[in-house]
Amino acid sequence: MSGGSFKAAMIQMRSGMTPAANIDEAVRLIGEAKSAGADYVQTPEMTNILARKREQLFAVIAEEEADPALAALREQARKLGLYVHIGSLAIKFSPERAANRSYLIAPSGEIIARYDKIHMFDVDLAGGESYRESNSYRPGETAVLADLPWGRLGLTICYDLRFPALYRALAEAGATLLAIPSSFTKQTGEAHWHVLMRARAIETGCFVLTAAQGGTHEAGRETYGHSLIVDPWGRILAEAGEDPGVIMAEIDMSEVAKARGRIPSLQHGRRFEIVEPLAEPTHLHVVRGAE
User: Fold this and answer.
1) 34 an active-site residue?
2) 117 part of the active site
3) pLDDT, tens digit, for every residue of 9-46?
4) Catalytic annotation, pick one of 117, 186, 242, 255
């Protein structure tokens, strides 16, 4: 499980349509976090561009090997000697599809882990607000864990938050830290952000680290902000408002064992088989043993 403590910093941004300007801002804020003592820094989903129209997105994104945003953030990690977790970049996967891809960068500048967002945000909200992420992005297929000096990190992105089975699986595979970089809409954030983030921490006994986009963006989208650091008992250790900036907290990894010792729900899970006999009510049968 590793252990010890470290300082985590969440970078809140308001990404626009120009990747170079967005990355300059990310580099500046990462430097600010390092000066404040951060060991691990996370940026939000869509660090390099937040575009609503497909043609705007594909006009500026690049394949991973040629992406200047990834190169600049790898260099910043190497120069400052800290872990930089790029919440996600829009990366060209094919002529027709992009990847919403997260990168964990080591202090050497090397890429430790990549994660492509699994769950696509395809929803119609009240007031005519509508999103079809699958029109532009290819969904990922694999959950990803990466080892940090202090614990095992589960990588997820934004809408993944609403699928608790993913977080249960990550925790059962050894995660003690969960990353959920996001670009939550203002409408859904006001309703669900805090309760979902705290729930994922409580039910897994993990720290939840979530850097967010916040405010009204150049493309017209409104995001909720409120980057968070939540401990395994569900307590909020640090929270941003709506504006760009940096929040930080000391992460004491001993809190994971304490929380799991008090509520050992990861040890008590059961797998259920649903049986639907003809002309009878549905019954739930408990299958002994964890899934």
Assistant:
1) no
2) yes
3) 999 999 999 999 999 999 999 999 999 999 999 999 99
4) 117
